[in-house]
Design a protein that fits this description.
The complex is a heterotrimer of chains A (about 325), B (about 240) and C (about 290). With about 240 residues, chain B is α/β, with parallel strands linked by helices. Chain B is about 40% helix and about 25% strand. With about 290 residues, chain C is mostly helical. Chain C is globular. Chains in contact: A-B, A-C.
């Protein structure tokens, strides 16, 4: 715990974090399956959001095709399990390797050819779409009909084979989310984090200060991609069915990034807060529009809320919440 | 026995399309010396800086630092070789704090955050920015940002510091202070400085040696006194045809 | 062989409409430097407007086109002036989120108003075709292409000959300089966005002659517009048209030669190559 609170973390912040973790640890004991399943969605979003935030919030590389890494992690581990019975955690490693490699290729190509900013964002979309369509025609993974993982009903949770109740996935994801938080905090305080933020601010000034921009950008992308693939693999074994259009689709890429941006780009807790807010909003909207029976109302309110947040709190909700709760006070 | 100069620039040339920005410029900066590079606007001074720091590739000529050829090195590698630079239009890392800005530079010398923080704090102290350590870089005034940029470059532990118009916009009292700071730093650390300036007061006070460029060519060099009296130099600043002395 | 030629021609004609649509995006990005992620959504709104004009008032899309285009100009102008203008200097991800939100609102509005099913417009000449030199050309396609080309020509004339048009080009080249010379940049940006919206409106009207409209096609067309604009060259008007023609033709051909579902993959592949090798596109100025 000391490693986490090494650099000056304000006391109120630390207490808030501790309370949050405590609550999250006990929720499944009281809440029903519906709440737990919803929280699983939240945690997926929070974790992937943190992975994306690393690349964008810290290193300033706007990836609009992050679904690529989710899809690769999901499909590789899923397909290896379906065809060879490869245990999920091993398959996950394979998925991580492929996703990491894909990220490195994209980053290296863009760097080599000087593709930055908007063009880089479009390049990421292109790669994701290209892969999506390719997988739609890839028989080994089931093509557009989808890949189905055999589901076994067990009496107990089996974490080694990732077969179990939503509660099991909940705790796995919670652990991952907290690990990602710790990792982000750690990296921020070290040279890597400083160099990333410098690169995000100003490429050339960063170079003049002695930073090998290429190497550090590559590291950000590779780390982000690999982390995201982990979530992809878990998703495969949670949903037990995969379709290229949903796995690699642009809607997923857009969903991935709205949470961290709404929560607060480049902040530690932004992605987590954003995930909670957006998932709650989405769930409320779904039940609301189900009652009202109007098709499209849910999306409309979702869009309007996004618009409101962008216009009123463009830096995200976390900085606002932080000030509201006075979490910056009580520095040690 | 002669000691080799720290920086040796020979026959440096750079062309942009139809414009010969730098034309066969040669000069030296001895170890620990402060050399001023002056000339009217558009004379090629910043281009020379960019060539030395690796932001641009020269068309011809050589640049040696401590005997090692550094021409064409990537800017971060040039920094590793010992070149620290500031930019004419300041480029701070805006959303980072002043301290963090300098720490970025300090990380060139160490991997440890603690050591980097210590080194950065010391440099901020020397440059009179210690009070602003926790402020965001974007909240600084322009003169403070110029000092911040110099601090960041200093933190990388350079052998040669390139200062690009670091006195611009300062009041006379501030100029004198900044001159004193850099003179002391140079003396204490054995740091060589190459500076370009329009503020003559500062250049004359600080430099051991001055190189004058005009239209990309070196037209004069020497001690501040000698250069100040050179008719060609006076003419290029005032715009009249040079009279033979 | 003849079938192949027919297909290519059909693709080229469709490509003209694509070109007009992409032109709107190119103009917006070329001048305001903002990525209009709501492009496809705006077009879908225009398509539905034309549908209503056709079903309620019996207007042929070609007749409705100028009206819809004008309407969209006003909407685009208002949107830029009222909402988007503040975000021009903001970081890219904020702009992106803003336009994404607008896109979602527009798309879901059409979903609420018209439902999820595909709708199409009915014109009397829907099945007519011309035969030109042995090549079979659909009348709808020919008319749509003609409409698109006249739209592009009108735009070209606007930028070339009118004072506002030239002012906008000045803004695109150097917006600080433009302000210094006294041009009302904010106003011009709003006009530019309006023009972009007009292109989208006009091309939407024409596209409705060729395809069905559904709320969900918005994102596909935004992406398509991007592909075309990147390939043709951001900020280049002939580039957008050329890109449109290329994409239209290659889609038609690859749909015929390979599997139809792979045709977008081909487009994305080309996009990747262009982004890497020649980001300024075929006709764009150096990036």
């Amino acid at each position: 715990m000391n490693l986490l609170i090494s650099s000056a973390v304000p006391r109120r912040s630390a207490m808030a974090l501790a309370s949050f973790v405590a609550v999250m640890l006990v929720v499944p004991l009281f809440a029903g399956n519906y709440v737990v399943s919803m929280l699983v969605v939240v945690l997926f979003s929070a974790y992937i959001g943190q992975a994306w935030n690393l690349m964008m919030g810290y290193a300033g590389q706007l990836s609009l095709g992050h679904a690529l890494y989710v899809g690769l992690g999901a499909y590789i581990s899923g397909a290896l399990f379906v065809h060879y019975g490869l245990p999920p955690w091993i398959g996950m490693l394979a998925g991580m390797a492929v996703a990491g490699l894909a990220g490195v290729v994209i980053a290296a190509l863009s760097f080599r050819f000087g593709v930055t900013g908007v063009y880089f964002a479009l390049l990421t979309i292109a790669f994701a779409e290209f892969t999506r369509i390719a997988f739609n025609h890839f028989a080994w993974v089931g093509g557009s009909s989808g890949l189905y993982l055999p589901v076994v009903t067990l009496t107990r949770d089996d974490i080694v084979h990732l077969r179990g109740s939503p509660t099991m996935f909940y705790y796995v994801l919670l652990a991952l989310t907290l690990a990602a938080l710790a990792l982000s905090h750690l990296l921020l305080g070290r040279r890597m984090g400083f160099y990333w933020r410098a690169i995000r601010e100003d490429h050339e000034a960063a170079q003049a200060a002695g930073i090998d921009v290429f190497r550090y950008k590559l590291a950000a992308v590779a780390l982000s991609a690999t982390m995201t693939a982990i979530a992809g693999a878990l998703m495969a074994f949670y949903d037990n069915n995969l379709y290229p259009d949903t796995a690699f689709g642009i809607s997923r890429s857009l969903d991935i990034i709205t949470a961290p941006i709404i929560g607060g780009l480049g902040t530690l807790f932004g992605p987590i807060l954003g995930a909670f807010v957006l998932t709650m909003l989405s769930e409320t909207m779904t039940s609301l529009s189900a009652n009202l029976g109007v098709n499209g109302l849910k999306q409309w309110i979702y869009g309007a809320t996004l618009l409101a947040i962008v216009m009123l709190q463009p830096a995200g909700l976390w900085p606002w919440l932080k000030t509201l709760l006075r979490l910056d006070e009580g520095k040690p | 026995m002669s000691i080799r100069p720290l920086l040796e620039v020979e026959g440096l040339s750079k062309r942009f399309g139809g414009l010969q920005a730098v034309d066969g410029v040669s000069f030296e900066v001895p170890h620990g010396a402060i050399v001023g590079l002056i000339g009217p606007n558009g004379a090629g001074k910043t281009t020379i800086f960019n060539l030395i720091a690796g932001a641009l590739r020269c068309d011809a000529g050589s640049i040696r630092l401590d005997g090692v050829d550094i021409a064409g090195l990537r800017p971060d590698l040039a920094c590793g070789a010992g070149i620290g630079r500031t930019f004419q239009v300041v480029r701070p890392f805006s959303t980072l704090t002043v301290l963090d800005n300098v720490m970025v530079g300090a990380f060139k010398r160490t991997r440890s955050t603690v050591a980097a923080r210590r080194a950065a704090s010391q440099i901020l102290e020397r440059l009179g920015l210690a009070e602003k350590a926790g402020a965001t870089a974007s909240s600084l005034t322009l003169p403070e940002r110029k000092r911040l940029e110099a601090a960041r470059a200093l933190a990388t532990g350079p052998k040669l510091l390139l200062l690009d118009e670091v006195m611009a916009g300062l009041r006379p009292a501030e100029i004198d202070l900044t001159v004193r700071i850099f003179a002391e730093l140079s003396r204490e650390m054995g740091l060589a400085i190459l500076l370009t300036e329009h503020v003559m007061r500062a250049v004359m006070a600080l430099s051991h040696h001055i190189v004058v460029v005009h239209h990309g060519q070196k037209i004069c060099e020497g001690t501040p006194e000698k250069v100040a009296r050179d008719p060609q130099v006076i003419a290029c600043y005032l715009g009249t045809a040079p009279t033979k002395a | 062989m003849l079938t192949f030629v027919n297909i290519v021609v059909a693709g080229l004609l469709t490509g003209c409409v694509y070109g007009l649509m992409a032109l709107g995006l190119s103009v917006i990005f070329g001048v305001i430097r903002i990525i209009n992620f709501a492009h496809g959504a705006m077009m879908v709104v225009a398509m539905y407007a034309v549908l209503v004009a056709n079903q309620k008032f019996g207007l042929d899309p070609l007749v409705a086109m100028p009206l819809i285009a004008a309407g969209l100009f006003l909407a685009g102008y208002a949107l830029q002036r009222g909402v988007i203008n503040r975000y021009i200097t903001r970081p890219e991800h904020e702009q992106f989120l803003l336009l994404l939100a607008v896109s979602i609102i527009l798309t879901s509005s059409t979903l609420i108003a018209f439902g999820p099913d595909a709708r199409s417009v009915h014109v009397d000449y829907a099945y007519d075709s011309y035969e030109i030199g042995g090549v079979l050309v659909d009348k709808v396609r020919a008319l749509a292409a003609l409409g698109a080309i006249s739209g592009v020509a009108a735009l070209w004339a606007f930028f070339r000959f009118t004072r506002t048009g030239k002012s906008i080009r000045a803004c695109a080249d150097n917006h600080v300089g433009a302000e210094v010379v006294g041009l009302n940049v904010k106003q011009l940006y709003a006009v530019t966005f309006g023009i972009g919206a007009t292109c989208v409106g006009a091309s939407g009207a024409l596209l409705l002659l060729l395809v069905d409209v559904q709320p969900y096609i918005a994102d596909d067309y935004t992406l398509l517009a991007f592909i075309i604009v990147i390939i043709g060259g951001l900020g280049s008007m002939p580039g957008a048209l050329l890109g449109g023609l290329l994409v239209g033709a290659s889609e038609a051909v690859s749909g015929f030669v390979i599997m139809p579902s792979l045709k977008s993959m081909f487009s994305f592949g080309v996009l990747i190559i262009v982004l890497l090798v020649r980001p300024q596109g075929l006709l764009g100025r150096h990036v």
